[in-house]
Amino acid sequence: MRDWFRNLTTAVVTVAQGMGVTLLAALRTYRRKTYTEAYEYPEKPLPVAARYRGFHRFDLTACIGCDKCAVACPVDCIYIDKTMDTGPDGKKGFRVDGFTIDYTKCMFCALCVDPCPVDCIFMGSTHDLSCYTRDGCSVDFAKLPLEAAWGRATLNPTVVAESKSLDAPVWVKGEPGMPAPNGAAVLPVIEKPAAA
Ligand code: SF4
Ligand code: SF4
């Protein structure tokens, strides 16, 4: 009989504690107001911590195509398309034609960041990537406008969708108006934006 009363008391106290936690959470939510009232997403993105690991930032104008990031990636989700080329200074090097990260596989571990010898890839503060199809999760940073790939513009679905129609990188080393590798277009010289 004593056990029966002890179990009953424990059950009542446990349920009361659970309800108390639920009530406190509900009151906090009521005080904070709804999520969209507080953050007005997407116009005002959610503030993130200084060392937050969001979607990458990649500087096409500095990348030397050394593959160290791709080798370090534990899930092999970085695909680099490059060709050996001679620059305007006569030196040989790689021209990066594509730098794709498959975000259906990326786990945001940042292991690709540290090996980069020229610091042209790091984890940015963008925390969302909306896309119209699953293909939109594969982002070719060499086809994005530089301000979206490296600068402060968000990795929005429009620039990612538009990048799918390009067959040449948005920037190549060389003179102003240098033709794209396939000779199909004359690329404008784009000023390198400040890092985000
Ligand atoms: S964050 Fe990790 S999983 Fe994602 S591309 Fe870099 S190394 Fe690969
Ligand atoms: S490690 Fe850096 S320089 Fe080398 S391919 Fe990756 S991003 Fe480019």
From TrEMBL:
Keyword set includes Translocase: yes
Looking at the record's lineage, which domain of life comes first? Answer: Bacteria
Q: Which GO terms describe its molecular function?
A: 4 iron, 4 sulfur cluster binding; metal ion binding; NADH dehydrogenase activity
Taken from the UniProt entry, a GO cellular component term is: membrane
E.C. numbers: 1.6.5.-
Task: Show the InterPro entries listed in the entry.
Answer: 4Fe4S_Fe-S-bd, 4Fe4S_Fe_S_CS, NADH_quinone_OxRdtase_chainI
Report whether Transmembrane helix shows up as a keyword of the record.
no
Identify the cofactor(s): [4Fe-4S] cluster
An annotated GO BP: aerobic respiration
- Span of domain 4Fe-4S ferredoxin-type: 54-83, 97-126
Keywords noted in UniProt: 4Fe-4S, Iron, Iron-sulfur, Metal-binding, Oxidoreductase, Repeat, Translocase
Instruction: Give a single Pfam family match.
Output: Fer4_7
Enzyme class, spelled out: oxidoreductase
Stated family:
Belongs to the complex I 23 kDa subunit family.
Q: State the name under which the record lists this protein.
A: NAD(P)H-quinone oxidoreductase subunit I
Chain's gene name: ndhI
